[in-house]
Design a protein that fits this description.
This protein has helices spanning 3-15, 23-28, 36-44, 48-55, 117-123, 134-137, and strands spanning 62-74, 84-98, 101-112, 152-162, 165-174, 180-188, 194-205, 208-217, 220-228, 235-243. The protein is an alpha+beta fold and 245 residues long. It has one domain (3-243).
């Protein structure tokens, strides 16, 4: 992992957390017992196929379009419809890379001010890599360990169609709400290779909460994070990276 990748990893580890919906609601989606077919399939899935597709970019020229949107989250009572979001800033740029090094940047759209350190890190030239958000899609998910199967519910969902081909879908939800991963959904091809992934996470501490959702598929990564720190209103960040080739 090069220095730029390490910076991305460090930035994201510092703020990773999960998105919408309560933990109880997410677990209620699943039956009280796991689907044995799904458990067996998940143990056989080839997890490195998704990260390998991005890793291959480090050896070839490519262009990506990156969009960062920032909102202030305004707290409101339930009687007024819950929280709303006030747009704060948007930045859309097109970047060209050779050998995983940034060689050109073109600003397509920019409004507002990206004043927070977190936003600045996400769009800085140093925070670039052909393997976006590498720490999310590398390594071994805890629900793949046979020793930890009892900690999760597993379910095979209805098939979907991706690029004109039928794909299998699976869902994993932890049995106990203990922070960290609250939902994982992934799509596989006929060779049991992961071709799309969605994960939700939540981390909380006294007076602080982080919620995030990550979506990864071929040539596209979206990270949506809401951070609620002490002495400051919550703020939502949505970063999308699309590989244009």
């Amino acid at each position: 992992m090069d220095a730029s990748t390490s910076l991305v990893v460090a930035c994201l580890v510092a703020v990773a957390g999960c998105a919408s919906g309560s933990d109880e609601a997410q677990r209620a989606i699943l039956p009280l017992s796991s689907d044995s077919v799904a458990v067996s399939a998940i143990l056989d899935i080839q997890w490195d196929s998704l990260s390998a597709a991005f890793d291959a970019l480090s050896t070839q020229p490519y262009t990506e379009e990156q969009t960062l949107e920032v909102w202030n989250v305004v707290r409101r009572g339930e009687e007024t419809g819950g929280p709303t979001e006030a747009p704060r800033a948007t930045r859309r740029v097109r970047r060209s890379f050779v050998d995983d090094s940034l060689v050109a940047t073109e600003t397509i759209d920019s409004s507002g001010t990206l004043s927070s350190p977190w936003a600045a890190r996400l769009v800085s030239p140093a925070a670039t890599s052909a393997v976006p958000f590498a720490h999310w899609i590398d390594g071994e998910p805890p629900y793949r360990s046979p020793r930890r199967q009892e900690e999760f519910y597993f379910q095979q969902l209805s098939d979907t169609t991706l690029n004109g081909e039928s794909r299998r879908r699976y869902r994993v939800v932890p049995r106990e709400a203990s922070g960290g991963l609250t939902l994982a959904e992934f799509t596989t091809n006929n060779e049991q290779q992961v071709v799309a992934l969605r994960e939700r996470r939540v981390e909380s501490a006294p007076f602080f909460r982080q919620e995030s959702e990550l979506q990864v598929e071929k040539d596209r990564v979206v990270l949506d994070i809401t951070i609620d720190p002490p002495a400051r209103g919550p703020r939502r960040y949505r970063l999308e990276r699309v590989i244009l080739r």
